[in-house]
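Lay summary. Proteins are chains of building blocks that fold into shapes, and those shapes determine what they do. In this project we predict the shape from the chain. Here is one chain we studied, written as its sequence of building blocks.
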Amino acid sequence: MANQVQIVTTGGTGLVGSRVIELLKNKYAFFDASLENGIDLLDTAQLELFLTKHPSQYMIHFAAFTDVKAAQQEQGNINGLCYQLNVEVSKYIAQKCHQQNRHLIYISTDYVFDGEKVGKYKEKDLPNPLNWYGQTKYLGERAIIDSGCSFTILRISSPFGIHQHRKPDYVQKILNLLQGNSGVMLFNDL
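And here is the predicted shape, written in a compact code that computers can read:
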């Protein structure tokens, strides 16, 4: 581990984070700040202590409130868990990355777009989120951009894995619906 590049993460035990770490664990040394590892991201004192204890050039912020339906129930609530995790924690992490000269990789979502564009979205397209989840992820992006830190924003869509995870991925949700004899509404790109 001493010769490996060290990367601090949040949400490394989640669906996306766990898969990325699994694929890259032999090349990089990961230090994860997550509830499963005893770090409450909403507790800035805990998070600051963790970041100080684990200096690195890079940080990947996987952690997010991703339950779209539950997020919608918090619509407009800046004190709700969705806003606090997706916006305020992201803002705090970006400020710390700026202060500690870390490059921040932020995992965002295609939910920042409204889906109305004909053709493929590009990085420079103007976001127009339709729901609270998308709005909070976009506000998280803005907080990172405005922080002055070095950053990369990755917008992903419908993540899935090769292993069963405690949180069902996109493919598992479809399989569960089909096994329950429920209809499945999908998209058409034609």
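What the prediction tells us: The longest helix spans residues 81-99.
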